[in-house]
Design a protein that fits this description.
It is a single chain. The chain is globular. By secondary structure, it is an alpha/beta fold. The chain folds into 2 domains: 151 residues, Nitrogenase molybdenum iron protein domain (Rossmann fold), CATH 3.40.50; 122 residues, 3-Layer(aba) Sandwich (Rossmann fold). The chain is built from 13 helices and 12 strands.
Length: 333
């Protein structure tokens, strides 16, 4: 087993304890646990090779749709699935955004968006129960990085599993939307959504087009200094915004930095995705040695919405816009 796989399982008990005390929080740290797998396997998204243009209905495609998922497994869809279980909050948000919500029968236990997911059946996010999955009789199971070790187990039970590693860039998020549109028979809606997202991204890019290099940024996933390296979709937001990610050069996608490394990096801006756990400018400023950090001196420590920035779904553009305003307030007045 990859060492990072072992580390993820060591962390799971901690995650569940924190979930139990904060049930509304779909955490950035859950994402750390899931995406640590990607450092072992790579961050390539599934690729789609359609044999025909699908219809926009949830019931049929004129000819088979063939795709290869992240582990190279080839899937053929004669019909668009009508009973989907989604283990990925990002994938769930995509399905609802492209009009495939009526095809979803169950979602992972921590999904909280969109509100229409509230009454759906729930499945475990980590170490899913095969019997529970079978009992729901899905015709498609969407699994992501956090469930990588269970993919073959579910396939051995005769289930159709589309395994898709969390993307390693913003472009990867957009491609995943197109992929799920293709699979579900909602290509037209997916293409429209992606076009709208690209327009919003372009507006941000044009507003900072004359900036050569943005500020040094630390994106904090947890108070024990986990962060996102550039080769992640979270890091992709910082790259798009021309920020200097202080996790540049990290050996893993979601590294844990030391206080010494951070103090030496001297971030000019600190973004707190763990603000929902109580982290704030005051708590950061009170950390030993942080009173010398530029972000603290200039009071540029900001809470950011974790669900929008830490999920590879349509709301990633909301995060791009939110962070753009924080980094360049004079450009977005």
């Amino acid at each position: 087993m990859c060492p990072l796989h072992e580390e993820v399982h060591k962390m799971n008990f901690f995650f569940y304890r924190r979930w139990a005390t904060c049930p509304r929080f779909i955490t950035s740290i859950v994402l750390i646990a899931g995406l640590l797998f990607a450092a072992c396997t790579g961050g390539d998204a599934a690729t789609a090779t359609p044999t025909a243009e699908p219809t926009a209905t949830p019931t049929a495609t004129p000819e088979p749709v063939i795709i290869a998922d992240s582990d190279g497994f080839e899937l053929t869809f004669e019909m668009a699935p009508t009973r989907i279980i989604s283990f990925s909050p990002g994938a769930t948000e995509i399905l609802f955004a492209i009009g495939a919500e009526d095809q979803v029968i169950a979602v992972d236990e921590w999904v909280n968006f969109p509100p229409e997911t509230e009454n759906l059946e729930r499945v475990k996010y980590i170490d899913p129960d095969p019997e529970r999955v079978l009992s729901l009789t899905p015709d498609l199971v969407l699994m992501a990085t956090a469930q990588q070790l269970q993919v073959e187990q579910l396939r051995s039970l005769g289930l159709t599993v589309l395994f898709n590693l969390e993307p390693d860039s913003i472009e990867g998020v957009l491609q995943n939307i197109l992929l799920l549109g293709l699979v579900t028979g909602h290509s037209e809606e997916a293409e429209t959504l992606v076009a709208q997202m690209r327009i919003r991204i372009t507006i941000v890019e044009e507003a900072i087009s004359d900036i050569d290099q943005g500020p040094r940024v630390f994106y904090e996933l947890s108070s024990d200094l986990y962060t996102a390296a550039p080769n992640t979709f979270i890091g992709g937001t910082l790259t798009l915004l021309k920020a200097q990610n202080v996790a540049e050069g990290a050996k893993t996608a979601f590294p844990q930095l030391t206080a010494e490394v951070l103090l030496e990096a001297n971030p000019e801006v600190v973004l707190l995705a763990d603000g929902v756990w109580g982290e704030s400018f005051e708590t950061v400023a009170a950390r030993p040695g942080w009173d010398t950090v530029d972000a603290v001196i200039n009071e540029r420590v900001y809470g950011v919405a974790p669900d929008t920035g830490n999920r590879p779904g349509p709301r990633i553009v909301d995060s791009i816009e939110e962070i753009a305003v924080l980094l360049y307030p004079d450009r977005f007045e």
